[in-house]
Design brief:
Structural class: mainly alpha
Oligomer: single chain
Number of strands: 3
Largest sheet: 3 strands, antiparallel
Strand order of the largest sheet: 1-2-3
Helix content: 55-70%
Radius of gyration: 27 Å
Low-confidence stretches: none
Strand content: under 5%
């Protein structure tokens, strides 16, 4: 055996094996580059033929004039900026002032729309007093009035926003993305204004609840209108995180609207204001905008890494931010060794899936179709888990699930929005007739332009009056089955595909 290992024949075998391996690797690189270029050219042509854009700059919202922009007031202007020498400390100081509105620890529960119940103002006053969030008396016969006055004294920006909300038609965080210097790797973009805005939103919702408790419906309606406009400002920024922040904000706004109806706090003028704002809000377009932005973000990331692999760019801080973790050095080295064509395959797989399974269904049938397509994406990606057999789907498996999972959440929020529109029209009908209608069609055209549709199946939102003198509104949910407005307790969130029961708007606690 030793003689054979030392023989010329063995050396020739090793040499030919090495040459064959090198040849195979070279051929694999050449084939990967060739097939990647062809696939990317075809994918890019498909997207452009369908009228879609892959350039993020073309998706960025236009910042309105300050006189029309609700979020251009002094306490909020500039909160998207990073601190620099020219404006040292100012943006961060404003963000910190907003973050000071954050309520800790966990405030009283507030899932009114879903459970038909909400903590009363006495519980809120106790929480705010014990956590030293507000300086409140030990007891009060009018806790709503006390909380409202204390909030406005401590955080005057809340009343400023509420007062200006009906007057300023638009809302955009400033400076807008068009005015900001974006990083080369877009995924490293800093978005510190979202945390600050969420603290602000919760304080505005608390202000609305306090006003409702004190029967100041106009103050409550204006506060909730400001919340909705902040949600729309988040959704206008073309990225998934902006959409998630926006729909979370609108969920809180819907809870405030529900509470105002339960307490009969709103006058007809307040209801008109809320109806006008909600009826012009388009969640189909908001999700579509986010998907287009994510497609542009994904393409940007792959092109940036492709340039790093080709030696055109240095894997600097942008890559470090995007590839944060213990394996950062290993990932950077792997990127440098990858053939250019592999990045073309990664780009193609990401764009193909996002176009075929998210954007195209959204354009054709709205969020409900996108939810169905998202389930197909999960099946497709599960079949492509082997990185050796399906290397072109490595990056798609990292990016796509985050986009598809949000569609069912947006559908639930859209259902709540349409229920709120129906409820506003019902309350206006009641104010005029001292009764609720037998059917939603009676609301048209005086109180509603049309009967709101259930986004799950495209039929009218279901409705019936209750023996308690109120009403139920419900949508059938993801299972598509009409359960008569029943909310089934099966330990699953309503946005889960396995949830059984309807999405119901009701005023009596769920039993």
């Amino acid at each position: 055996m030793f003689r054979f290992i030392c023989s010329k024949r063995f050396v020739r075998i090793l040499l030919w094996g090495f040459i064959s391996l090198v040849t195979l690797v070279v051929l694999l690189y050449v084939w990967t580059n060739w097939s990647g270029r062809r696939r990317w050219a075809a994918t890019k042509a498909l997207v452009e033929r369908e009228g879609e854009v892959l350039d993020l700059s073309k998706l960025l919202p236009v910042t309105p004039p300050a006189a029309q922009n609700l979020l251009a007031i002094e306490p909020l202007a500039g909160i998207t900026e990073a601190d620099n020498e020219a404006a040292k400390g100012t943006p961060e100081a404003k963000r910190q002032a907003l973050l000071a509105m954050k309520m800790e620890p966990q405030p009283p529960p507030s899932a009114g729309v879903e459970k038909g119940e909400m903590a009363d103002m006495q519980a809120w006053a106790k929480f705010l007093r014990e956590t030293k969030y507000l300086d409140l008396p030990a007891s009060s016969s009018a806790p709503g009035r006390e909380v409202l006055a204390a909030l406005d004294a401590k955080f005057p920006v809340l009343k400023q926003l509420a007062d200006l909300a009906p007057q300023r038609s638009q809302a955009t965080f400033t400076p807008g993305l068009r005015e900001r210097k974006l990083p080369e790797m877009l995924f490293s973009l800093t978005l510190r204004h979202y945390a600050a805005s969420q603290a602000l939103v919760r304080a505005l919702c608390l202000r609305a609840r306090a006003a409702i408790d004190d029967k100041q419906g106009a103050e409550a309606a204006r506060s909730l209108l400001a919340v909705l406009k902040i949600a729309q400002a988040s959704e206008a920024e073309p990225m998934l995180i902006g959409l998630l922040v926006g729909i979370s904000t609108e969920t809180m706004m819907n809870e405030g609207v529900w509470l105002g109806f339960r307490e009969n706090a709103f006058a007809d003028e307040d209801l008109r204001l809320l109806y006008q704002a909600l009826s012009t809000h388009d969640l189909d377009q908001a999700l579509l905008h986010a998907c287009r932005g994510e497609m542009a973000f994904g393409l940007n990331a792959m092109e940036y890494l492709q340039d790093v692999a080709a030696g055109k760019k240095d894997a600097g801080q942008d890559v470090a931010a995007a590839l944060a973790g213990d394996h950062q050095t290993w990932l950077r080295n792997a990127i440098r060794m990858a053939p250019s064509g592999l990045f073309d395959h990664w780009k193609s797989a990401i764009i193909e899936l996002e176009w075929k399974k998210m954007i195209a269904p959204l354009r054709q049938g709205g969020i409900a179709d996108a939810v169905k397509a998202a389930q197909e994406v999960s099946t497709d990606l599960n079949a492509k888990q082997n990185p050796l057999l399906q290397p072109d789907y490595i990056m798609a498996r990292m990016m796509i699930p985050a986009i598809t999972s949000v569609s069912s959440t947006v559908l639930l929020v859209q259902a709540r929005e349409r229920q709120a529109l129906a409820a506003i029209a019902l309350e206006r009908f009641y104010l005029k007739h001292a009764r609720y209608p037998a059917a939603l069609q009676e609301l048209v055209p005086e109180f509603a332009a049309a009967v709101p549709l259930d986004p799950s199946d495209g039929k009218a939102v279901r409705y019936r009056t209750t023996p308690a003198g109120r009403y139920l509104l419900w949508c059938v949910g993801l299972d598509g089955k009409d359960d008569g407005g029943e909310i089934k307790k099966n330990a699953l969130p309503m946005k889960s595909p396995d949830y059984l029961g309807d999405w119901t708007w009701q005023y009596e606690p769920v039993k």
